[in-house]
Structure formats: structure tokens, C-alpha cells
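Tutorial handout. Part one gives the primary structure; part two gives the three-dimensional structure as C-alpha cells.
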Amino acid sequence: MSQIGTDQLKQYLKPMKKEEREAFASRCGTTLGNLNQIMYGYTTCGAALAIAIDRESKGNIRCDDLCPSADYQYLRDQNEELSA
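Part two.
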């Protein structure tokens, strides 16, 4: 996991009250405790959670940065081919 992704996550959650952070985590399908584990490098962020965080943060936290091992560009390219 990249430092960029965890920094983005920290900065995004920092101004929120605890209840808001918990609600954000819930919308992402996880817990605030798990997000804390990810932010401080104790665990990695899987692709599905990275996508949920990207979606719920409205792109402020990029899934590519949270889980760089996943090939998101391949999926984007596949989606474009299907749409064409």
C-alpha cells in the first residue's frame, strides 16, 4: 500500500467527528478500527475496500493509491471496450 493512499485517507478523515468517521467506515462496509489499521500501516487495504473508499470519498481518496497492486486500469479499459 502506498504512503500516498494512507496519507489521503488520514487527511480526509481528520476534520471529521468520530461519528462521521464511523458512518463513513460503515458506508464503505468496514469499521473505523479497520480504517485506522490501514492508515497506520498495520494492515493492507484490499481492492474491494479501496473501491468503496474511493466511491464514498467521491474520488478524494483514489483506489489506485490505497491498493496499487490491483490493476484498476485494466478494468477501466474493459469497461470502455464494453461501452464502445
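Part three, for discussion. DSSP finds six helices and no strands in the chain. The chain has a mean pLDDT of 91.
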